[in-house]
Specification:
The chain has about 140 residues and is an all-alpha fold. Helices cover about 65% and strands about 0% of the residues. The longest helix has 27 residues, at about 5-30.
Length: about 140
């Protein structure tokens, strides 16, 4: 077998391997997994707040989201309220309570605006679906 023919055969194998890798990766990228990104969420909310931004800064938006996420991730906090609801009244009250404890005085309209926009962000990325029936819950 001559050198140029061997080289051509190796190039075809490398090209075929590259196409196979590309095809595999493109299939993985097509899977519709909802990925929540705090930075993306903050940007989405910031853009949705309107021109006056309700007197909030991006840091305020992030802080409100972090307190709500803390609320949602702590079952011992919300177990008496039922189930955690993104943007719910109990989450907003917890967020406002934490704000006061740390020296921030957010008005309820500011907190609800941020939490409402977060809910629209979650819908936009496909992270919100139909409610689960009780008999469908694990355990």
């Amino acid at each position: 077998m001559s050198g140029p023919l061997l080289f051509a055969l190796l190039m075809v194998l490398v090209l075929a391997f590259g196409v196979a890798m590309f095809w595999q990766e493109s299939r993985r990228m097509q899977q519709s997994a909802a990925i929540y990104g705090v930075d993306d969420s903050v940007e989405w909310i910031w853009e949705g707040l309107g021109e006056d931004k309700l007197g909030l800064t991006k840091a305020d938006v992030r802080r409100i989201l972090e307190w709500e996420m803390h609320y949602l991730q702590q079952p011992d906090i919300w177990k008496d309220d039922g189930s955690p609801i993104v943007g719910g009244e109990a989450a907003a009250a917890y967020t406002q309570e934490k704000a006061f404890e740390e020296g921030y005085s957010y008005e309820p309209r500011q907190i609800y605006a941020v939490l409402d926009l977060q809910a629209t962000y979650l819908e936009a990325i496909g992270a919100v679906g139909d409610p689960v029936e009780e008999d469908e819950l694990p355990g």
